[in-house]
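Quick illustration, no need to memorize.
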Amino acid sequence: MDSVGDALFRPVRTGNAFEETVERLLQAIKLGVVPPGERLPAERDLATRLNVSRVTLREALHALQESGFVESRRGRYGGTFVCTASPRAMPTSVSRVDDIEDALTLRFVLETGATEFAAARELSDEDRSHLRARLDECDRAALDEYRRKDSRLHLAIAELSGSPSLTAAVADVRMCLNELLDGIPLLPKNIEHSNRQHAILVDAILSGDSSAARRAMAEHLDGTASLLRGFLG
């Protein structure tokens, strides 16, 4: 593997291991580090280089197989191979890499700030019940309605900041984000992980720990950003 491959297959961070593994593999495929028709490094080697478990790696490979980027072959010369014709992402009006990064930066600033303010405020019983209801709604959402329920939870957090202007700004960036998300597949493993992060995030807000809430939101947003950069970048 050349130096580019060494750079891409470097250890991932632990907070969003699945999402970052998907991102690294997609980068290697899209940049031609592993050309169409060629085999990815062996699972054991790849898991070691990315510093992830074999389970996480297999889940990431399964997601890419379901999305049409790689295929699994059995037998003596089997393994995971890059498909000769990779799928194209659904078109979005936000298509340039700079536009994607701009949207992700704006989202990060707005939503981490809104979360910090939400956790710092004295919340009413009604506020707390509303937030828990949105969390439960997202956790129980079917695959085809997940993004809508996820949006409602994030907007509920923004509303608890107490700033209508900030809430409106989060809603605007969420519209842009959903347009980007429509260009990538829904990954059940990512949804499972997001729901766990949502629970940690809401717990931090309800306990009034603004620093922990901000950190939890930042980590959560980083996971989504990894997938968007991987699939659309």
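Strands lie at 70-73, 79-82.
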